[in-house]
Amino acid sequence: MKKIIFAGHMKHKFLPDSTGKRDLKKNIVLLLFIAAVILGAAAGALGGKYADAELMKSLDIVFLTNFQLRSKAGMLSVFTASFAANFIVLLTIFLLGLTLWGELCVILIPLIKGYGYGLTIGYLYSTYGMMGIFYNLLIILPGAFLFSVVVAAAAKESFVNSVRLLAMFFKKAVSDDPRVQMKHYLLSMLWLLFLAALSSAADMLFSLMFSWIFGF
Asked: Counting runs of H as helices and runs of E as strands, what totals does the chain give?
């Protein structure tokens, strides 16, 4: 009897059930979106060497590339601009998760956001050299890193919810309560919106602490 119990326990511990397989797939999807952010950042860093001030200004509303704002404006302005840009990105991801085709498009958001961050890195380095790198490390990176994780997690939630909506049209019966799943999606996105606000607070805090070092 003990052998049966022990064998059952070991099977439960080491062999994933359907829930475990579902969680594994979600983790793979999350890693995919993290890789998309990194790939976008690498491409942006290469393209940033050829960017100019006018291009960076035109992309500011999405990528928050206004360095004068971080260095000279009030801290509330820094937070507001950062959170507004983050909110636009999260709202786009959220809405894609409510469509049947969102899983096909949401991969673009981490790529674009990563590209914007990489573009900033490349521009700072090509324009200001090592001072630009230090500016990135001290002021931009803390908030950008946190928000990159938020974008990847939000994209995963959006992808999963969109796939779930699509699956409803092909299944004869739905095993999970759609209302529960939608509630989970909304609460997850609200939590990620809160984390986005924290990343904006990090932008504000690190700008306050280190922007006086830089003259651009």
From this structure: 11, 0
Q: Provide the 3-class DSSP secondary structure of residue 29.
A: helix
Q: What is the mean pLDDT of residues 46-75?
A: 65
Tokens of 153: 């997690």
Identity of the residue numbered 62: V
**Amino acid letter, 98:** L
pLDDT digits (tens, 9 = 90+) for 116-140: 888 888 888 888 888 888 888 888 8
How far is 103 from 36, CA to CA, in rounded Å? 14
Q: Please report which confidence band the pLDDT of residue 42 belongs to, taking 50, 70 and 90 as the band edges.
A: very high
Return the H-helix or E-strand segment holding 89.
helix 75-96
Q: What does each C-alpha distance from 7 to 1, 15, 151, 170, 205 come to in angstroms?
A: 10, 11, 41, 38, 54
CB 189 within 8 A of CB 94: yes
